[in-house]
Amino acid sequence: MDIMLKGSELTRAMLKAGHQEIWCAVDDSSDQEAMSNLTNNDFTARIESMKDDFFYCTGGMAWLCAVPIKIRALTYAEAGF
User: Fold this and answer.
1) Do the Cβ atoms of 24 and 44 come closer than 8 Å?
2) Using an 8 Å Cβ cutoff, are 5 and 13 in contact?
3) Centroid of chain to Cα 73
4) For residue 56, is pLDDT > 60?
5) Taking residues 17-38, what's their average pLDDT?
6) Residue 42 has what DSSP assignment?
7) 41, exposed or middle or buried, with CB in 10 Å at 0-12, 13-18, 19+?
8) Residues 74, 38: contact at Cβ < 8 Å?
9) What percentage of residues in the chain have a pLDDT greater than 70?
């Protein structure tokens, strides 16, 4: 049976598969809080490793939750021109 991973579990699997510097919404409470923080603040980090149940970003900070997100460049229209 295939398992659909999501949230921090998906980030763990991606790191184990060799992915590097995964853009994630981060938080120390829950995956839901990490995603809700994107609305009011921009708590994102490039996650590069995991150790002792903590995700570590390129800045060296540890996080309990890291949800992979997709980041893309703005278009001309989205920039308000």
Assistant:
1) yes
2) yes
3) 17
4) yes
5) 93
6) -
7) exposed
8) no
9) 94
Residue owning tokens 């938080």 = 27
| The pair of three-digit structure tokens given for residue 27, joined into one six-digit string | 């938080």
Kindly give, in sequence order, each residue whose CB lies less than 8 Å from that of residue 75, ignoring residues fewer than 6 positions away: none
Token output for 4: 């659909």
Q: What are the structure tokens assigned to 33, written together?
A: 């809080």
CA 37 – CA 24 distance, rounded (Å): 11
Residue 21, phi-psi category: left (phi > 0), alpha (psi -120 to 50), beta (remainder): left
Q: Which residue has the tokens 């409470």?
A: 29
According to DSSP, residue 78 is labeled: T
3-state secondary structure of 71: coil
What's the pTM? 0.82
* Residue 40 confidence class, pLDDT cut points 50, 70, 90: low
